[in-house]
User: Fold Saccharopine dehydrogenase NADP binding domain-containing protein from Fragilariopsis cylindrus CCMP1102.
Amino acid sequence: MLGATGFTGGLAVRHLAKTYYYNNNDGNNGNNNKVGSSTIKWAIAGRSEVKLKQVLEKLAMELNIPNLVNDIDIIICDTSDDNQSTLKELVYNTKSIATTVGPFSIYGENVIKYCVHYGTHYTDITGETSFVKLMKSKYQHIAQHTGARILNFCGNDCVPWDISYNLLADEFNKSGASFGDNESLEKLEFINEFSSSASGGTLKTMCMGIDGRLAKPLPKDETILRRNGDIDHDPPMENKISFGIESGVPKPWKMTSDNNSNNNNNANNKIITAPFVMSGVNYEAISWSHALRKDPICSYKEQLVQPDLKTALDGVLGLTIFFTSLMNPITGKLLEKFVITKPGDGPTMEDMTNKYFLAVTGTAYGSKGTILQSLLYYNKDPGYLETARMVIECSLCLATSFVDNDDDNDDDNDDDNDKTKTQITGGGFYSPGFALRKVLLKRLVDTGCYYELRVIQEAEVEAAAAAEKETAELASSSGSS
Assistant:
C-alpha cells in the first residue's frame, strides 16, 4: 500500500488491517470478521518512516491489534524522485501495488514506469483521464511484454459504474440467455443516489486540472483508451450525458416502494435528475471497457437524483460558480489558499460511516427489447472510505485470486466455463471493470457492498425471430427477382 500516510491511503491501510491482518502466532487477534486468506503478505510504503509508524500505531489502538506495528513491514520510498533506488526495490519485490499518491500527474509516473519494467501489477485511484492516456501511450507496449497489469480508475473513479456496465453487458453476451441469443446492448443509463464530501487531495487535483498543471497527452492520443493496437475502436460508445435538469424521469425499480415501478403514468413514480460531476470521467472509463470488449455501438447517459427542483437548481448553480471561480486566476488562487481543504484532510470517520452513501442503478436496453437493471450499493462514504476498500480489493484480485483466465478460485459457484469472470491473460493497461468482473464483485460484496441484477423486460424472442425470418424472405425474394 503506497501512500499510506495520506488521507485515503490511511483508510486503505485501515481496511487491510481490519479485514486481512493475520498473525501466525495468534489465531485471529480479535479479528473475527477476517474474510481474506491468511497467506496475504502486505506492507505499507511512503516517504516518512515516522509517519508510517504512526499510522500503524493509531490503527493498532483503534482496532485492538497490538501486534500490528511489529508484524507489518514498513518500506521507505519517494515516488517523485526518479533516481531513488528505494522505489525500484519496492516495485521489484512486490507482486501488486495499490497507490493513492496523487496528484498522479506529479507523483504517479515513476511508479507505473517501474511496474511495467519489472512486471509488477498496479492499481490506483486516479480520476485524471489525461494522466491515464499519457501513461498508456508511453508504457503499453512494455507492459504487454513484461506481463504487468496496470489498472487505473480503481476507486470511486470509476469502479461502481465500470463494473456495473461490464456485468450488464456480459448478460447480453452469454450464449443461451433466456432473453434470446445474439442480443446486444444498445443503450446504457445510470441514475445515481450519491452523498459524499471532498478531501483536500481531490480538491487540489481539481485546482491543478483547471490551472493546466496536470498531464497532457499528445493530440493523437486523445482517443487512446478506445484504441486496440493502432486502430481506434469503431463504432464507439456515444456520449448522451445530459448537462441539464430533467423532471419526470421514471424511477428505477429499487427507488420505489410500490410494485408498479415500470408504470410511467404514475405521477408518484417520477424523479428529478441533474448533472453528475463525475459523469465525464465515468464515461471515459466505460468507453475504455466498451472498446476492450469490442462491443457494438452503444449510447451512454448518467444523471444524479435530486429530491426536488430547487435542490437541483441550487446544485447546478453552486457547481457553476465554484468551477468558474476556480478558472479565474484571482479567485482561483484565493480559493485554493484560504477555502479549499488542504491535502491530507478529509471528512470525519463518523460522517464517512454514517452520513454518506452511493447507490448506482444501471439500466441496459437490448437490441431485441430486453431491459436489464442492476443495483450496486455502498452504505458508507464512496469518495474515500469505500474508494480505499475498492483499490485494495482490485489490487488483491491481481495478487491472489485473479491469476489467469482459467483461474476459478473465486468460489462463487459459477460454471467453470463462464469466461465472463476474467478476461485478460497478458500485461497491459486495462479498465478495472473489464479486467476483474465477477472476481472483483465477489470481493466487494464479501467486504461490504450490495449487488442485485434483475430482468425488467424480456425480449419478444418469437416476434423478433419471425421479423428476422420475414426480412430474410423478402431479401431472398428481391434477390431472385
